[in-house]
Amino acid sequence: MRYSQSLLPTLKENPAEAEVVSHRLMLRAGFMRKLTSGIYTYLPYGLAAIRKVEEIVREEMNRAGAQELLMPMVQPADLWQESGRYEKYGPELLRFKDRHERESCLGPTHEEVITDIIRRDVHSYRDLPLNLYQIQTKFRDEVRPRFGLMRGREFIMKDAYSFDMNDQMAEISYRKMHDAYNRIFKRCGLDFRAVEADSGAIGGSFSHEFMVLAETGEDTIVICEKCEYAANMEKARVAAPQLDNSIELSAMEKVETPGKRKVEAVCKFMDIVPEQLVKTMVYLADGEPVGVLLRGDHEVEEVKLKNLLKATDIVMAEDKEVFDATGVSSGYLGPVGGSIRLVADQQVEAMRNFVTGANEKNFHLKNVNMHRDFEVESIADLRQVTTEDLCPLCSGKLELTEGIEVGHIFKLGDSYSVALGAVFQDNEGQEKPFVMGCYGIGVSRVVAAAIEQNHDANGIIFPVPLAPYKAIILNLDLKDNEITAASEKIYQDLLDQGIETLLDDRDERPGAKFKDADLLGIPYRVTVGKSYAQKGVIEIRRRCDGVTEEIVVADVVPYIVKGVAEATL
Ligand code: ATP
Ligand code: MG
């Protein structure tokens, strides 16, 4: 492509609206323009990067035996009512009526539509397994669309759905997708991890997220330094604590703690450490108050709590709500003689002679012990892992790091097929519901994540496989016939070798051309300027590490062809 003929509007300044690097750089490098909140037009350069991801995704999905189809974006509400999700999904599902007053919605995901197809057309175990996928625009009315393509309202997703005759076969389909995803993100040139993810009600390790490691990630992931264990913080297991029954239980005592509500203040006042205190956090689980007990220095992992309580929505109660529910000012709440439902983190059971609120303003209790002084409804792993915890598999040291979720695979089981009556006949003529899996990749988010992971102060550093152009040729003097002829020749030769190339033939100062080449993140920069006119050499520079060489014209194309081939898996 000739730069002079492209729509590639680069910006010199950082747009004020962009908070994260990828968003800033994508706006500056002319990837996209915002139409309205969370909704973007993908300009040619941005679309080309998205297409690169799509190409790799398609090849690997096809290789894994999946087939591509394309489902509608507009979906009838009836189908969502059948699955029970029309009520449950919440405001991310954009609902509207058509001219005939028929309730409809814009697809945020396609389990219902695909299950409807399968129930109509697939009837026998002989037709299984099946895995169908599409690459399509999704709409989710996100509360806080932000960070550009990272969390849009409209975005491009690859979603796949597998159908199997039993659990065992479904696990094979799941494994295949796990492998395909590993290949996809590796081929994209990204540093990523597959982590165990929360699978809500299903449980087990049947959900994995694929995380691109980057500081700006919205998710925290836990990685073992020794073994393969990696999990989303939401799911990361804390090893069960050792119970030590040798410590003697002391007599419980009430202590006046005037105005001391916070863990830190109570500890200071009573001359103890937070490890000797149990705090009572009040949550509203679908509106119902529940007290959660945990050690003073620990934090509640809300996803674990939500799963334990089987709640659809949990929020921490405000001070007033705490008072309304318990009759006690927050800060003095405790498990002894309280009136609300209580659950406890497993660590609390292993603690002896701890401090808690006394359920009375300005008082705490000392030497409290579970089972002797109070009971709870359930004891479970409810807290966030810390770096002081050890790996649940090998007791190695754990590391916490930030990640961007680019893919999510999930064993669904038969919940959709049962709800929608999608059944087949097994080899004994028995009617059975399909066992399903679903597998998503945020295609547009992958491009943003790639930039979060690969950039410097001057711009994007595209991993070669995702770069829309592998090389950019800077013609530094359009008026010099020799320079222009050499630029054109290299351009043609690269195109002939199948190397996507941008020829900067704009009437711009060299400085502007260098700046744009860096900003766009094109892996190889070929400069045809004075040294060509004087010495017959071309400067070639790699964007990834800045390595610069001067080579003769004849070597330029082979150099780039070799470099691109090496980066292509
Ligand atoms: P998140 O926790 O980030 O909201 P999700 O769990 O809702 O993601 P899925 O429903 O599993 O996401 O969707 C599959 C993939 O689509 C995600 O792994 C992510 O990469 C991408 N994705 C989800 N929501 C968005 C969005 N609003 N903008 C861009 N990509 C998205
Ligand atoms: Mg979401």
List the uncertain runs: none
Number of strands: 31
Q: Would you tell me the structural class of the helices and strands?
A: alpha+beta
Structurally, the number of domains stands at 3
CATH architecture of the largest domain: 2-Layer Sandwich
And the CATH topology of the largest domain?
BirA Bifunctional Protein, domain 2
Bound molecules: adenosine-5'-triphosphate, magnesium ion
What is the rounded distance between the termini?
25 Å
- The averaged pLDDT comes out at 95
Tell me the overall shape.
globular
CATH top level assignment of the largest domain: Alpha Beta
CATH superfamily of the largest domain: Bira Bifunctional Protein, Domain 2
Largest β sheet strand count, sense and barrel closure? 9 strands, mixed
Gyration radius over CA: 29 Å
Please count the helical segments. Answer: 16
Query: How large is the share of residues in beta strands?
Result: 25-35%
Helix proportion of residues, in percent? 25-40%
